[in-house]
């Protein structure tokens, strides 16, 4: 590992946009399938990893939902969450905010209690064992109906105090934010913070709808906003965080090569961008790999990398006291590495 690599890996970072069910490493997927008496289309981890080649968001979602089938029991949800949190900790992540989308699991017969107990149990263990700060976000599927989302909202109320936000993912084009205006209002009325995937494959108009109609606190991805200068100005002025996922954008053909990724332009326009992993095994990396890929392709300075990391800490759904503590950790790290790192 080069000095720069270990400096970036050691930075106290956030991962604010990742999906638990998209974090199953290939070997764990095979193990979980075997445990649940299922046969996958692939026999080895290498063969499975080789299948991670996508033309667009939908081709990824097809494989992602196929992979979701191996998660059945409380123990499965505990194991996958535990594995991700261990990797994140090793990657220098100090604050992780995790999405899970319960709808497809409930539909296949897993009780919500089992899913929540597995995920929350692993989160508690990571707090204890790694000192990691971690929060859970419940994500609904935009390719389902708003009525389905409302049912989900009712079902999760017993865990309200253990859920930091409500989000939405899935097939974007044809499922604009406007379709879920009443759902997001209901989530806000019940006291939840909100965030939504917008402008990943969809147009700037979807980011505008997310802001005006859903009134979200953060936008997941948001890349397409660049096509609308007024929107960029408003996002920047209101410091709405955008949880950008560069390797995800590359692997889903949102950009043809990393050198064309809009991250640096977004920063230059004053947007509050953060760098995140989305679905790490599918897209080839955790947060550090995302930062390194951007640094290499976009020639980011270390100051810019530190800015991205600081943006993540500032965008986290934590209390003011916790944010100050996390920012203090970053400042201590920078003070310890002064000179060597900031050239
Ligand atoms: N976009 C939409 N839905 C998703 C994603 C994503 O990047 N990852 C997991 N579900
Ligand atoms: Zn995502």
Automatic annotation (TrEMBL):
GO cellular component, one term: cytosol
Reactions mediated catalytically: adenine + H2O + H(+) = hypoxanthine + NH4(+)
EC number(s) recorded for this UniProt protein: 3.5.4.2
Keyword hit for Metal-binding: yes
Coiled coil start-end: none
GO biological process: adenine catabolic process; hypoxanthine salvage; nucleotide metabolic process
Record flagged with keyword Hydrolase: yes
Cross-referenced SUPFAM superfamilies: Metallo-dependent hydrolases
Record key words, sorted: Hydrolase, Metal-binding, Nucleotide metabolism, Zinc
One term of GO molecular function: adenine deaminase activity
Positions of the Adenosine deaminase domain: 12-332
HAMAP family with a match to the protein in the record: Adenine_deaminase (MF_01962)
Function: Catalyzes the hydrolytic deamination of adenine to hypoxanthine. Plays an important role in the purine salvage pathway and in nitrogen catabolism.
Protein name as annotated: Adenine deaminase
Organism of origin: Rhodopseudomonas rhenobacensis
Lineage: Bacteria, Pseudomonadati, Pseudomonadota, Alphaproteobacteria, Hyphomicrobiales
